[in-house]
Design goal:
The chain is mainly α. It is built from eight helices and no strands. The chain starts with a helix and ends with a helix. Pfam families: HEAT_2 (PF13646).
Length: 134
Amino acid sequence: MVQREDEAYDMALIEGLRHPRPDIAETCAWVLGQRRTRRAVPALIAVLHERPNEVDVHVAAVLALGHIGDPAAFPALVEAVHSGAVRVRRAALRALAELDLDRARLVLREVAEADPSAGVREEARRLLQERGER
């Protein structure tokens, strides 16, 4: 019974990602990340394409993808690093480092050297330094 309730709750949260109110979609993304709901990965990735002007929702979605830890999210996070708003790009860097640091190192190094935003470059450098690179 509990498993069915958990599944129903997860499905309601996934559905909430499409809610017209951004604050509700953002909260749903955050909760899905905290619950590490793998089945939410495709819907969280879809949020990045379907809600292009909602920065807070994007930040919550990319952080959720990092928390969930599904390698299938890696390409979407790399895309967010290169095309999102500054806050989204910084969050996507953190998510990539959390998801798979070995794969993320190349992206982090590239961003640390070439991103147009000083804040994004600094975030990439900080993540590299925290994880043992100079």
